[in-house]
Amino acid sequence: MSVMASWNGKTWGVSPERIAALNGVSASVELDTENSDDKAGSPATKTKALKLQSMSFDFDLAVAVGCDVRGEYESWTALVGQYAPFYLGGTRFGPPNLQLTGVSLGDTTVDNLGRILKGKITISLTEFAEEASSKKATAGSSSGGRSSPAGVSTGVGPRLSAITVGASSSDKAAKKPNNIQLT
Q: CA dihedral defined by 114, 120, 122, 123, rounded to 10 degrees?
């Protein structure tokens, strides 16, 4: 099977036995800014940090092309909260880890026995930031515990993200006002 994309052991591609192709990928990177009143000489817009990156995509499934639509949807819902790198064309695409934050099933056709014959699954991923997640998520493995596929970059190295940009915890604590009435 020719693999077009993968995330946490899930793959998309086309083979003689199965057709599971992505319809498209949407990704975004945004700057987090704060607007304030323009005071003598201070800028009206202040840059705070990068927002967490997000990505979404959808794919069509049908029994006629070798897919169990209901089973695939249920397997995705079991992965909500897990994170792993996303690979597109054999190369990591986006931040080092993306957390599955949403799964939806739509555009379904159901037969008279209640079987889902075809449908569209939409996936929402958000950059995984350990501090923002309160360490509740579980790490996934894009290859079931094996090393990354041959020729695939693991993306190890310095990178700015929404977590690494901004004031440190000690800077924030130093700027907090003390309320004497509470002591």
A: 80
11: helix, coil or strand? strand
Instruction: Output the 3-class SS for 129-162.
Output: CHHHHCCCCCECCCCCCCCCCCCCCCCCCCCCCC
CA 147 – CA 158 distance, rounded (Å) = 21
Q: Which two tokens stand for residue 170?
A: 């000690």
Instruction: Provide the pLDDT for residue 14.
Output: 83
How many C-alpha atoms does 119 have within 13 Å on its Cβ side?
Answer: 20
The edge-to-edge listing of strands for the beta sheet with 83-84 is 22-28, 54-62, 116-127, 98-110, 83-84
State the Cα–Cα distance between residues 25 and 130, nearest whole angstrom. 24
∠ at Cα 80 (59, 129), nearest 5°? 110
- Mean residue pLDDT of the chain comes to 76
Query: Cβ–Cβ contacts within 10 Å for residue 90, how many?
Result: 16
Mapping DSSP onto H, E and C, the string for 75-127 reads HHHCCCCCEECEEECCEECCCCCEEEEEEEEEEEEECCCCCEEEEEEEEEEEE
d(CA 144, CA 157): 23
Tokens matching residue 78:
């079991």
The size of the chain, in residues, is: 183
Model pLDDT, residue 49: 77
